[in-house]
Amino acid sequence: MCCSSVGYAIAVMPGDLSEQPHRYIEIDVSEWNLYGEEVLGTKPKRWLIRPDTQERLWLMKDATFNTLGDGSKYRKGDDWAERIAYGVAVALGLPAARVELCVDGRGHTAVFGTICRSVLGPAEDLVLGNELLAEHGIHVTVDDRRSYTVAAIHRTLEDYPSPPGANGSSAWGVFVGYLVLDALIGNTDRHEENWAVIVSESGRYLAPTFDHASSLGFLLSNAQRLERMSSKDHNYTPEAFADRARTKFRARPHPIDAVVEARMLGGGDATEHWLNQLPGIEDLVAPIWAIPEHRMSMLARKFAERVMRRNWERLTGSNAR
């Protein structure tokens, strides 16, 4: 195993999976055992387990591809976006499902992706947001999100406790932190199945945050990034791109507007707490530069940093405070 000056390391199976969130590693899962396929969602994913341990399952998500008009393809950044988001969540002190970069070489072609450690322990189950909302008479589907609002989540979570060990007094207070994370990275996919409550023998509590791939311009090609970064049109820059992010909530507000709404719903103390948790912008963008170049190009890095800087400037100067 070798480490570079930016804290990156290659770990071959069985790999060093000790809890070191500030060190970026790539896990070779070629010899991990397939536990089962995951049918939820649209991206290829499967549950894996290390053959040398009985620890929790890990969900592997393959990095996906876009096809251009000429038939050529490019790999999107859903893998590095997930890992960066986890790094930012750790910097904020938020409970988050652990994510690592991985490669699966068991096929004819190596597959890049991420592995995400299951948030569930023994005898625990996950109740997704859409089910929780339905328990409160709020019915939300992928085709009808008219009832999906920050206020609806507040109503649903206000009586639940926070995750064990979380730096927050309630599930709602910690969820406000999830919204702050979304605002920083421009996450546009906090839909009704991308947050949950864990049910255990001792009761229910908010699950750690998970699934943040739809952020930081992950979907763009390098040609599109270069065009935006070199544009003299202020409406086409990476900053303009950041400003156009839209959530899945009703009326599609910007992620920063969702934080503002949370404050207005009585989350003022929680909002102030998480904004006070914000490190300096240099520390927040550090995870972007810890991703290796064979996983994230220099153009993708520079674009993602400009997006996060813009979001940080708007968030720290907004009426969310």
Quick tags:
seven-stranded mixed β-sheet, three-stranded antiparallel β-sheet, 35% helix
Describe what you observe in this structure.
This protein has 321 residues and is an alpha+beta fold. Helices cover 35% and strands 17% of the residues. It contains nine helices and twelve strands. It has helices at 78-92, 129-135, 150-157, 171-185, 222-229, 238-243, 255-277, 281-290, 298-317; strands spanning 8-11, 24-28, 33-37, 45-49, 58-62, 65-67, 73-75, 99-104, 111-117, 125-128, 196-200, 203-206. The strands form three sheets. The protein has a seven-stranded mixed β-sheet with strand order 1-2-8-9-5-4-3, with helices on one face. The protein has a three-stranded antiparallel β-sheet with strand order 10-11-12. It has a two-stranded antiparallel ribbon with strand order 6-7. The relative contact order is 0.14.
